[in-house]
Amino acid sequence: MSEALTPGRYIEHHLGHLTLNLKTFTIGDGGGFWTLNLDTFLVSVTLAIIAFGGMRLVATRMKLVPTGFQNIVEILIEFVGNSVRDIFHHKSTFIPSLALTIFLWIFLMNAMDLLPVDLIPNLLGYVGVKHFKAVPTADPNAAFAMSISVFLLVVFFNIKMKRLGLLKEMFTSPFGPYLFPINFIFRLVEECVKPVSLALRLFGNMFAGELIFILIAIMPWWVQWPPGAIWAIFHILVITLQAFLFMMLTIIYLSMAHDSH
Questions:
Q1: What is the number of domains present in the chain?
Q2: Taking the alpha carbons of 156, 162, 164, 166 in that order, is the dihedral positive or negative?
Q3: Which listed residue, of 66, 169, 224, 240, carries a Cα 20 to 30 Å from 36's Cα?
Q4: Helices (H), the chain
Q5: Which pLDDT band, with edges at 50, 70 and 90, does 12 fall under?
Q6: What's the rounded Cα separation, in Å, for the pair 16 and 8?
Q7: Does a structural domain hold residue 139?
Q8: 96-108: b or e for each residue (b if 16 or more CB lie within 10 Å)?
């Protein structure tokens, strides 16, 4: 860090995004409604290709006696499958696949927070990139994109499984048919809170974790190691827990969409 770069500017620098203006198709570090956070998009897509391409490769080379990476993949699939069966009591191949995708993808995006905060920005700085955030889940746009996708799936399965029974459920639960306006308002609030809570829980935890790493990086190099190591070890639990919670809440919401009250 240069002498001219104050702690405040250092933090601001690391919180900036590499952006793409969708109107002019220019790359920079600005903002606005028609702006795509290019760093979030590139990192998340790259991690998805690596993760699920690797699992695809394992699936095409399955052995009777599993070894190495195949063991890890089988343990992960069994763990997610058991979690789905404990909550979701309907026959479906889509829900376990969705749960596995959510858990693995979010875990890997969260795990980018364990890289040194200056590593990727400094490397890309050699090619003229001024800002680059390497943790997609610390971007509220990515967190809300995933939560809204889950919300749309919940709406879809509610309509598909309950049909006209959904209207009856919305107007009569929980206070009975005579208080149908209150029932309807409560149901709308309940449904709208789901994507907001999913997104804010994930974004809040990951943004806070990233900010702590940045604050540790401001310290002199000979002081950084003890707090950095302690926080990194604790953060392993955080990134795993946040991926697990997002997956479990998704399964719960989709299970509720399949069940009739």
A1: 1
A2: negative
A3: 240
A4: 7-14, 38-60, 69-87, 94-111, 119-125, 140-162, 164-172, 180-218, 221-258
A5: confident
A6: 13
A7: yes
A8: bebbbbbbbbbbb
Containing structural domain, residue 54: 7-258
What is d(CA 193, CA 184) in angstroms, rounded to the nearest whole number? 14
Tell me, yes or no, whether 48 lies in a domain. yes
Separation in Å, CA 113 to CA 9, 53, 133, 204, 234: 20, 22, 10, 13, 12
Catalytic residue among 71, 82, 197, 260: 197
Q: Among the options 141, 149, 201, 255, which is catalytic?
A: 201
CA distance 161 to 164: 9
Structure tokens at 46: 């790259």
Return the structure tokens found at 213.
Answer: 């790493």
Nearest in space to 159 (alpha carbons), one of 173, 174, 170, 149 = 170
Choose the catalytic residue: 85, 205, 255, 260. Answer: 205
**Phi, psi (deg, nearest 5) at residue 21:** -75, 115
The pTM of this model reads 0.90
Is the pLDDT higher at 69 or at 88?
Answer: 88
Q: Is 201 one of the annotated active-site residues of the chain?
A: yes
Token pair recorded at residue 156: 């879809």
Question: In which band, very low, low, confident or very high, does the pLDDT at 41 lie, cut at 50, 70 and 90?
Answer: very high
What backbone torsions phi and psi does residue 28 show, to the nearest 5 degrees?
-165, -150
